[in-house]
């Protein structure tokens, strides 16, 4: 393992001691953490998967090795411990190991957070990671796990403040220091501090031009301000830098395509979908890539583009996850694909599975929210798909200020705002059509000069509401 990664003593020197006598295991822990933060599989290290295999051989009883390996699988949301016995067993094994060793209080908290997250208690897991950060503000694993979990909850302010609290303790010489800029910028933009977010993200890029998360934060700012030409120029100018982050490249291409969708340039967007987003999604099977592909096709279809064959191709990737129900956000995107591909059986199965879990949600916060948010949103999408716009609007409109809780970013959830507007405009109820126009005026106020809003306004005016 490369000299640059931290061994047992280096972690101790930073006040982040790891209970292992294996320098190799401690360096591999650093290698996995580094790739996670950079959103990159480093082939010279064997990628994250290769490092995960190696760390378990270097020290099979290394608790923090188990925490990072199992934690990354959980945080990816591509597998449900409820259905995946191997993953569930890995969580139990980590807890057992922690109970049998003289590990530090910080390491014990990491294990506790892991177990809570595995049960779907995302908020409680975040509270434990914040406990870690209170005493150990430079613990990047706690910070990054919390950052991702807040994202899944749509907890925008905690996501911002979690990074703000630790920033003063980080110094430029520390490993991964520059990557905090992108994380903080993302929290800022999700709480509408666009100018500050842009400044912080660009500071990150001045330190590390290949930081794909900082690029992603800039892309969001241009998206939310409808500064489309600036966004296109930025993404194209930086493509060679962020392309190397294989775990985030597809998402950044998705952002690039959103500018084209906003401009009404559907063919340009579809070219990015075909050559980058779907190709990468099929190869990676990563959840972020799947939801991006689903969301892109749904937006294009609402805009009137024909994407039928693409739905069927995408269904092959998403269908194995129909029963997962790890997050409502994922479920809603899988539903889009089932409906788009005319797979009513898969759509019904997804809804019925969610209804069953909502009856006895236990500690699982996502399943607790299913009854009041997830299930009505699923039903609304199904009604919309069948042309029952009145019923779809009656289900969707009361949820508009609660949708943030399904997680994701403002840019990702904008799809549901667009769906609500399309539903209102397509309804034959004059009050609904009038509501659609009100929603467009509101949208124009927060995102002026959006061509998409202007196109929809023309449609609304044609209804003589």
UniProtKB/TrEMBL annotation:
Gene3D superfamilies in UniProt: Tetratricopeptide repeat domain (1.25.40.10)
- Highest taxon of the lineage: Eukaryota
Q: Which CDD domains match?
A: StaR_like
Provide the alphabetized UniProt keywords. Repeat, TPR repeat
The similarity annotation says: Belongs to the TTC38 family.
Q: Protein name, please?
A: Tetratricopeptide repeat protein 38
């Amino acid at each position: 393992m490369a000299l640059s990664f931290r061994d047992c003593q280096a972690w101790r020197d930073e006040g982040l001691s790891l209970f292992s006598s294996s320098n190799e295991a401690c360096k591999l822990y650093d290698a996995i953490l580094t790739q996670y933060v950079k959103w990159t599989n480093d082939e010279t290290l064997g990628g994250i998967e290769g490092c995960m295999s190696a760390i378990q051989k270097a020290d099979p009883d290394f608790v923090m090795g188990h925490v990072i390996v199992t934690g990354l699988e959980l945080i990816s949301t591509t597998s449900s411990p409820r259905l995946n016995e191997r993953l569930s067993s890995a969580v139990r094994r980590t807890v057992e190991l922690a109970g049998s060793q003289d590990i530090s209080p910080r390491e014990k908290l990491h294990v506790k957070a892991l177990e809570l997250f595995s049960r779907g208690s995302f908020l409680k897991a975040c509270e434990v990671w914040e406990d870690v950060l209170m005493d150990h503000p430079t613990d990047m694993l706690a910070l990054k796990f919390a950052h991702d979990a807040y994202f899944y909850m749509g907890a925008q302010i905690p996501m911002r403040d979690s990074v703000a609290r630790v920033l003063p303790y980080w110094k430029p010489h520390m490993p991964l220091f520059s990557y905090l800029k992108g994380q903080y910028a993302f929290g800022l933009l999700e709480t509408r501090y666009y100018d500050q977010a842009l400044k912080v993200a660009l500071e990150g890029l001045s330190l590390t031009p290949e930081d794909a998360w900082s690029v992603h934060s800039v892309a969001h700012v241009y998206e939310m301000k409808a500064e489309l030409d600036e966004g296109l120029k930025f993404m194209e100018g930086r493509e060679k830098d962020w392309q190397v982050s294989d775990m985030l490249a597809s998402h950044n291409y998705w952002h690039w395509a959103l500018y084209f969708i906003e401009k009404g340039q559907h063919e340009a967007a579809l070219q990015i979908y075909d050559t980058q987003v779907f190709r990468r999604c099929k190869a990676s099977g990563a959840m972020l890539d799947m939801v991006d592909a689903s969301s892109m096709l749904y937006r294009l279809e609402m805009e009137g583009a024909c994407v039928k064959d693409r739905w069927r191709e995408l269904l092959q990737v998403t269908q194995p996850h129909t029963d997962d129900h790890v997050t409502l956000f994922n479920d809603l995107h899988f539903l889009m694909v089932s409906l788009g591909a005319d797979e009513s059986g898969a759509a019904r199965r997804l809804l019925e599975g969610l209804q069953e879990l909502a009856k006895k949600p236990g500690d699982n916060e996502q399943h607790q929210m299913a009854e009041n948010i997830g299930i009505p949103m699923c039903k609304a999408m199904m009604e919309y798909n069948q042309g029952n716009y009145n019923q779809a609007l009656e289900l969707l409109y009361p949820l508009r200020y609660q949708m943030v809780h399904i997680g994701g970013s403002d840019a990702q959830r904008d799809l549901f705002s667009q769906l609500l507007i399309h539903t209102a405009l397509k309804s034959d109820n004059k009050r609904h059509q009038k509501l659609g126009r009100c929603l467009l005026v509101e949208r124009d106020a927060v995102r002026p000069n959006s061509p998409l809003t202007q196109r929809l306004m023309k449609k609304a005016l044609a209804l003589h509401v």
